[in-house]
Amino acid sequence: MTPNILKKLHITGNNNKSNTTSTNQQPYQSENMEYQPIQGQGQPQYQQPQPQHVQQQLNVPQQQQPGGYGVAQVQQHGISRETSPNFAANAETQTQQIQTPHQSQPQTIQQPITIEQSLLPQKSTVSKGKYTLNDFQIMRTLGTGSFGRVHLVRSVHNGRYYAIKVLKKAQIIRMKQIEHTNDERRMLKVVEHPFLIRMWGTFQDARNLFMVMDYIEGGELFSLLRKSQRFPNPVAKFYAAEVTLAVEYLHAHNIIYRDLKPENILLDRNGHVKITDFGFAKEVSTVTWTLCGTPDYIAPEVITTKPYNKSVDWWSLGILIFEMLAGYTPFYDSTPMKTYQKILAGKVHFPSFFHQDAVDLLSRLITADLTRRLGNLHNGPSDIRNHPWFAEVIWEKLLAKDIETPYEPPITGGIGDTSLFDHYPEEQLDYGAGGEDPYAQYFVDF
């Protein structure tokens, strides 16, 4: 590993890089607009302990399993700065009343039905009506995928750079990804965390959906890992710790992410992580069934189409940590089917250079036994944060970005620097198409 790629990590040190020069502006607003910092980030908000029994048996009512298989969404390359504008917290909490059917036998007592309230932040979920294609100048392609591509764009109003994720409606319909796409929009609109991507708004034309994101200049963690081959223990620990806080935040709001991998982790200009691409994320209070994700990172209970809960993300975290330390995933094979077979067999071979604390942590994350998997036990995510491998991490400082990053991307901020992204062939764009929209009914909130 070359010194110019990764410098020594002081995991309890102070970060003397100032973030005050990184201003945050919406694409459509003028330069003198005022902002307020994110509220409540001084201390991490940890999830309350789960029920006192281990979550092994997932007892759920009999219901039809959702159909369809997940397919990889287009990757977002989009960078969230250090402060956020005020969001209008005008989402109304509605009290739902259930009418029980009339019973012919008066002695039958109807038990009240409990409706579980959404734990998503109570903010407006409206993302449309603020931007149009005319508000941006398209510069170049940052990434491509199954449903479209991501562009670097520049606001014609404030001159700043953003990323726009474009999804083709016809392809979404063809691949039966309507629900996933609408879920992605809704969750990105309300989540707010230092290590998650931010979406400013959405719009659409007759053929495409557009999602306006922050532009993340530092590139993918995947690219850095490939250049480095593998990360030293302290470096992998730093990135894993930031990812842990982000996943814990999502789980505290009943969101399963379901696609944790280095390609979906971007690095901002200072080297902090930003988890992107919520194409497979879903709000789930109990369990779900859908088979989706990336083969190397999928938990065994997902492969076997059993009902699964949020603990599948902690399995994926274990795979991610293993990959950062080893340079490869533990169940890799030439075909997805062979990879699935290895996952179900569950045999993990740890390299001899792994620290014993890392081996212990990974053994407790990459396990099919839900009575042993950390994050799924009585203490929830605190079992992961309190593991000896993370012993020197000061979580409050990490959440406040008051810890020196192990790698600062060699980019120039504020000029749309794309030197850390691959080049893609540009194609003639059909954006702005008018006329009849045969798909309008499916994407009314865009």
Automatic annotation (TrEMBL):
Q: Which InterPro entries match?
A: AGC-kinase_C (IPR000961), Kinase-like_dom_sf (IPR011009), Prot_kinase_dom (IPR000719), Protein_kinase_ATP_BS (IPR017441), Ser/Thr_kinase_AS (IPR008271)
Recorded superkingdom: Eukaryota
Q: Which UniProt keywords apply?
A: ATP-binding, Kinase, Nucleotide-binding, Serine/threonine-protein kinase, Transferase
Q: Which GO terms describe its cellular component?
A: cAMP-dependent protein kinase complex; cytosol; nucleus
The GO terms describing molecular function are: ATP binding; cAMP-dependent protein kinase activity; protein serine kinase activity
**In what ranges is there compositional bias, type Low complexity?**
12-24, 36-76
The record places domain Protein kinase at: 136-390
In this protein, which residues make up the domain named AGC-kinase C-terminal? 391-446
As its record notes, the protein acts as a catalyst of: L-seryl-[protein] + ATP = O-phospho-L-seryl-[protein] + ADP + H(+); L-threonyl-[protein] + ATP = O-phospho-L-threonyl-[protein] + ADP + H(+)
Q: Could you mention a single GO BP entry for this protein?
A: protein kinase A signaling
Q: Does the keyword Lipid metabolism apply?
A: no
Binding-site positions, ATP: 165
Q: Which Gene3D superfamilies match?
A: Phosphorylase Kinase, domain 1, Transferase(Phosphotransferase) domain 1
Q: Which is a Pfam family this sequence falls into? A: Pkinase
Stretches for region Disordered = 1-78
For this protein, the Enzyme Commission number is 2.7.11.11
Instruction: Establish whether keyword DNA damage is in the entry.
Output: no
Query: Which family does the entry's similarity section mention?
Result: Belongs to the protein kinase superfamily. AGC Ser/Thr protein kinase family. cAMP subfamily.
> Per its record, how is this protein called by name?
cAMP-dependent protein kinase
Write down the species.
Answer: Wickerhamomyces ciferrii (strain ATCC 14091 / BCRC 22168 / CBS 111 / JCM 3599 / NBRC 0793 / NRRL Y-1031 F-60-10)
